Task: structure prediction
Amino acid sequence: MTTSYAFGATGPKAALAPFNYEVRDLREFDVQLEVLYCGVCHSDLHQARDEWRNTIYPVVPGHEIVGRVTAIGSQATKFKIGDIVGVGCMVDSCRSCPSCKEGLEQYCEGETGFVPTYNGTDKQTGAITYGGYSSQMVVDEAYVLSVPKNLDLAGVAPLLCAGITTYSPLRTWNAGPGKKVGIVGLGGLGHMGVKLAAAMGAHVVLFTTSPSKIEDGKRLGANEVVISKNADEMNAHANSFDLIVNTVAAQHDLNPFLNLLRRDGTMVLVGAPEHDHPSPQVFNLIFKRRRLAGSLIGGIAETQEMLDFCGEHGITSDIELIPAQQINEAYERMLKSDVKYRFVIDSASLKQ
Result:
């Protein structure tokens, strides 16, 4: 076995601290990787603090992982030693349900659903899965992704969650030329949504509550930026959007955004709040045949498609690189939206 140097939490009020564990021995289809970088997702904070009431302690967060393959199982053929790879939000699924067979493993209908990269249960051993705030990981090759060689690796890490979380609804609802697409919120998810929608050729409108983000929104690719607290600015866009991707992870009123959808338009929720949003007005939906939908990350094939798309278009996340020892400070800053736009852990710091 190999020791993985990590940072984890032992309880909902405990600060993240050094936590070492032994990674599992290689199974025949496994790859072992040295973690190079791991993005810091808002979900990590929710899980570390048990805000979703399902955390298994000790918890080692992290599901935006870029690493280098250091060993492969006896039957593994997808990668070779030295390859740069990615691991996202899941490391297994039932592989036999309709969703898994369609390449939509994130919607696995097996008894326990997909196995999360952390805070999940290994299907073979029952051991708790530990995530990317680690120096070493072992993952089945079927859930490992190829990273384009032309991209900055630290900037790639958040693509494994923030990137695919916004890419999947943009692709599913056909964002592209001739479509007007709104992105609500300019954080880790939102800034990726703006970049990706712009690269797909859509007319992109960013919604933010912060006038200070107007310039940055346009730099990232938004054609227009609307201050969502300004009723006149909002009303000017009534009945005009084909698609709105709402990335906000805090409880809020959805109706002002539903009003902006054209007939048959869709608003997709991808932010995961601690408490549910208030129910929207039913007539708001009925009279324009509007749709309110949700979307969860993406399947393995679609995540690889997203990485390839980002490689073709030179897209990475805007990041602030930190040592693992600053993770608790990063969580507090993340709560204040004091990051542009994703913290990424330099995993070399875990051994210090």
